[in-house]
Amino acid sequence: SLIMKPKVIFVLGGPGAGKGTQCSKIVEAYNYTHLSAGDLLREERGRAGSEYGQLIDTYIKEGKIVPVEITISLLRKAMEETMTKDETKSCFLIDGFPRNEDNLQGWNRVMDGKADVKFVLFFDCSNEVCINRCLERGKSSGRTDDNRESLQKRIQTYLQSTRPIIEQYEKHGKVRTVDASRSVDEVFAEVKAILDKEA
Ligand code: UP5
Ligand code: MG
Questions:
Q1: Which of 29, 147, 149, 169 has the most Cβ atoms closer than 10 angstroms to its Cβ?
Q2: Which tens digits make up the pLDDT trace of 69-121?
Q3: Is 53 in the pocket of ligand 1 (CB under 6 A)?
Q4: 21 lines ligand 1 (CB under 6 A)
Q5: What is the pLDDT of residue 87?
Q6: Of 151, 158, 86, whose CA–CA distance to 122 is shortest?
Q7: Residue 10 belongs to a domain
Q8: CATH number, residue 45
């Protein structure tokens, strides 16, 4: 039988910009499935018998971007599982990916023609706000990268590697930018306006 070609929105923005928070709200209101690349990597890191556990652990603490083969196989598996369980679930928010040129090339290699990337939903936020949100969350998150030292590196990686990816999509008119520094509800109102217009 014909399986629907998945529709994808890439969700990008600095560490702590609110990608996960807003994706949860989108899932409540729209028929989208949220796949956080970071969450999938953290899950794989904790999986007994994972051959990548140690590598993922080190990369995350260092704020470095895991080789795309690992991330893309997790994303692809999650998409396939979702669509196999319920074939009407063919819209995905891919949160925190693609973060660099290696990610983008890996996606194009594996997924070209197999998924429709609609646009990038970009949560724009100052580094200062991003850092403060992550430090605040770090008091209870248990995340190994919510500390000043890792955050410095995450911000660096974001500016050096991820911003250029967003700029590439921008050149093709494929970025929808949201001011992510406002309250959760204000940000979500802007997100809704974008999704309702694109749908
Ligand atoms: N918060 C959220 N919105 C708020 C608002 N409007 N006002 C006030 N507070 C707000 O939010 C962060 C915190 O801020 C929360 O406490 C929230 O309540 C509050 P969240 O929604 O979690 O922000 P998010 O953007 O999702 O932040 P996150 O820390 O998840 O972003 P990162 O991009 O840094 O983390 P991710 O999990 O995507 O990646 C982690 C690491 O995994 C990367 O550094 C990298 O090492 C690795 N990785 C890869 O290698 N490859 C990938 O493809 C993906 C990840
Ligand atoms: Mg997140």
A1: 169
A2: 999 999 999 999 999 999 899 999 999 999 999 999 999 999 999 999 999 99
A3: no
A4: yes
A5: 87
A6: 158
A7: no
A8: 3.40.50.300
